[in-house]
């Protein structure tokens, strides 16, 4: 088995996990790449919650995307059977996203026996960073 086969297997497993645990998100949120310490997830912005009068993607929708990316990265690293709970989050919405696909890039900053800290940057279709989040999870 090649490294490319293993990577495809990993993304297939993570995308199946989205379908199992979050079926309402599975059709619009797709993990494109995953390693031990990084995950890249894409979401179609037209499927995300919008502000008033069909404005920009809302802050809560960006929060949900960041949380999902962090959750999936921890599940990939710790195993699908572990319990992952969000403890604290710091999220900054930096700019209004351009229309198109949003990309969440999650990076594992620290992973200990009971806690995991993840940084998530969300970029728009023009690859401009629109959101930065730091998330701390309890892992059991």
Automatic annotation (TrEMBL):
Pfam families: 4HBT. It comes from the Bacteria. InterPro entries: HotDog_dom_sf (IPR029069), Thioestr_dom (IPR006683). Residues 55-130 form the Thioesterase domain. This is Acyl-coenzyme A thioesterase PaaI, contains HGG motif.
